[in-house]
Amino acid sequence: MVQTDPQADGSAPAAAPPAGEAPAPRRPSLSPSRAADFKTCPLLYRFRTIDRLPERKSLAAVRGTLVHSVLERLYDLPPARRTPENALELLEPAWADLRDEPGIAELFGTAQPDGAETDANAPESVEAWLASAGKLVEKYFALEDPRRIQPEGREQLVEVTLPDGLLLRGYVDRLDVAANGALRVVDYKTGSMPREAFESKALFQMKFYALVLWRTRGVVAAQLKLIYLGDGDALTYAPEETELVRFERTLLAIWSAIERAVATGEFRPNKTRLCGWCDHQALCPSWGGTPPPFPAEAAASAGWRTTLPVSPA
Ligand code: SF4
Fold this sequence. Notes:
The protein is α+β, with helices and mostly antiparallel strands. Among the domains are: 55-111 and 118-148, no CATH class; 153-240, Alpha-Beta Complex (Lambda Exonuclease, Chain A), CATH 3.90.320. The protein has nine helices and five strands; from the N terminus they run ααααααβββαββαα. It has helices spanning 32-40, 42-50, 59-74, 84-89, 91-98, 126-143, 199-217, 241-264, 296-301, and strands at 153-161, 167-177, 183-189, 223-228, 233-237. It has a five-stranded mixed sheet. α1 packs across α2 (42-50). The two termini are 39 Å apart. Iron/sulfur cluster is lined by residues 41, 43-44, 269-271, 274-275, 278, 280-281, 284, 286-287. Residues 41, 43-44, 269-271, 274-275, 278, 280-281, 284, 286-287 line the site of iron/sulfur cluster.
């Protein structure tokens, strides 16, 4: 995953400019997760990307972040030390870095009088939850031997500006480069492998990275690999250049639709069973709610073109 987006909108902070240079102006960009949002429900895209409404964290999502952090740190160790035991040792420091982030403490039972974070016997205790993350980390070793892998990048920002100006950016969980230059893009998922009918949805994100890498390096990735730690399975795919050309056209079409929606402020809701996971039902017309007025001013200052009235600066 490019799984854990360092920013809430899935985009990342730009790399620091050279000393003495002004930072590049912020401008809208497309990440795999935000493109997927728009495809799923344009109004969800608006709430997340334009309104930037807060969303609740979930135990499953935070566990995903924790496991990603452990697998990233695992590759800081010398190859011979990348064992399951040492990986499990990385859980505590990774958790120490995560536990104070906003919204995380509230996911667990209240602190105990003896100073413990939670009641260790409760099913939602930190201890039980950490143990479940540990099981996912252990499963990783059934799928790959990290002693034999030397990644070129981990949690690596990849970005490219397409000829028509669309900025694509995202984070690759792991990028491997073979001695002959062949690229492998790896993404860790803490859930289970999707059924065949949903494979293309899972591969959308991976093709996005393949497209950016092809456009920046001129090399079509030899393998896109999704590792599902939930059931210990993996999905691999070898994209072709013609496919990436088509995929680029798809992204451009999605981007045109997003730009039209921002220009007019019209983001239609798309009610599906995925609404069950949406934090914004109370503001959604499909569920009897009313969205807040479109924040044209915020959109304009974030670099979007809008035809809606914006107060002069
Ligand atoms: S509740 Fe459903 S239709 Fe409404 S914004 Fe969320 S995903 Fe879209």
